[in-house]
Known about the structure:
This protein is an alpha/beta fold.
Amino acid sequence: MLQRPSIIALLALLLSLPLSVQAASAQSFIVAHSATGSSPMSRGDIRRMYLNQKPKWPSGQRVRLAIMAHGPARDHLLQRYIGKNSARFDRYWKRQLFTGRGIPPETFTSQTEMLEYVRTTPGAIACYEGPTPPPALRIILVQD
């Protein structure tokens, strides 16, 4: 018969397994509408797009930005590619909007809604956090 501490340790181990598997399978991807160009991009290209310094794709199509309102995908995008925290990014876009220099990113509270926006909006780009993105989206290879 198992002793009480052994049962508790075994239960704790079993309960932690799905969480560790889920954490290991979550990754970040830059995804875009399927009709965007397939060429690799640099982190600087992503940064310039999200700061409205590169408002068009190489094909001439207007860039349509999408971003999560909060969460790991937003944090990853802002830290790794843009180099701003959430408050500074929001202030930047408020200034851009106020001065008439750009349209801020579409903001989403659900990754499902954001991915649907990217899938159905030509020129759209977003950062997706999870397992493999849906096949209807183009995964952008980002070179450092």
